[in-house]
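#structure-requests
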Amino acid sequence: QVQLVESGGGLVQAGGSLRLSCAASGDIFSINTMYWYRQASGKQRDLVARITSGGSTNYADSVKGRFTISRDNAKNTVYLQMDSLKPEDTAAYYCYADVVRLDPIKRQYGYWGQGTQVTVSS
């Protein structure tokens, strides 16, 4: 099995910063793209950022210039550096990973983390 565990959420004032981490562990051959999503209360889950195994990144327009996604392939970990936070960034943040497993042939599966809450006060 594979587990994704997020950490780093919390309460911060507007204009502040937080750094989220998501570590994948378990039966992993490799990880392709890794993602951060967020879901505000009563709203749908939206893509925030993604990063390929080669380091190519994409961001939602709402976070461009403020958030930075990165990864450490040796640690199977993805990060989200969030700067200049706004109250509208308040949400539960989830990581998602395209994990390649050998079972016994190579196949890709998608896994979600459990989420970490980010609250930005005005």
